[in-house]
Amino acid sequence: MADGFITEAEQQKIDACVRAAETRTRGEIVVMVVPASDHYPTAGWVGATAFAFPLAIAFTPMLGGILWAGPFNLWVFLATLLPLWLVFHEAAKRIPVMKRWFISAKEMEAEVREAAYVQFSRKGLYRTRAETGVLIYVSVFERRVWVLGDRGINARIPETDWQGIVAALVQSIQAGRPAEGICQAVGDVGRILEEKFPIGVGDVDELKNVMVEGRSP
């Protein structure tokens, strides 16, 4: 669950980091943490097949001999395969480390990017007056990060400017320091925004600073 990825106290710390960054820019920074960007249903099928078939092949001669059905009996094979397949299907669905074995890096990258765009729209980050919303999207299961800016941001800041920030945050997550890494990312994004979009008179906070979703992968 994403709400176990960072504690309540860390959420408050991140919120304070966002508020501090936004005192210098009219950009609107939002941090979103989600458990996963997709359920990856095919991972269960692929994982179950990868484990169940070779085990069923290995066990069939032994069970066939015990049951006096012959070492290559098809019905013994199927009777062995089905429960193994069901067990490994559930395991591949529910054990994150195992599930990742059967999902390609390319697929995870695509799902995280798509989910970031969906959340950007769903949470209304495009509704700021100057189109200056920036989403720092953290997907826990995939251990991936996406930074996405609104049209006003993208007109003056190329997407490549976020790459170093993303890489540093991913390293912090892998090192077990997600809150520290998120705060660092917020500060770095704030400095880039400050240069292009300095704080203006009458600027107000238009978006919620931190969103933590509790949906399971």
- Characterize the main sheet: 4 strands, mixed
The CA-CA distance between the termini, in Å, is: 8 Å
Q: Supply the CATH class of the largest domain.
A: Alpha Beta
Can you write the helix and strand succession as a string? HEHHHHEEHHHE
Helix share of residues? 55-70%
Task: Give the strand content.
Answer: 5-15%
CATH fold name of the largest domain:
Diaminopimelate Epimerase, Chain A, domain 1
Tell me about this structure.
The chain is of the alpha/beta class and 217 residues long. The protein contains eight helices and four strands. The chain folds into two domains: 2-38 and 104-212, Roll (Diaminopimelate Epimerase, Chain A, domain 1); 41-100, no CATH class. It has helices at residues 8-22, 41-66, 74-94, 96-100, 105-122, 151-154, 163-174, 178-196, and strands spanning 28-34, 133-139, 144-149, 210-212.
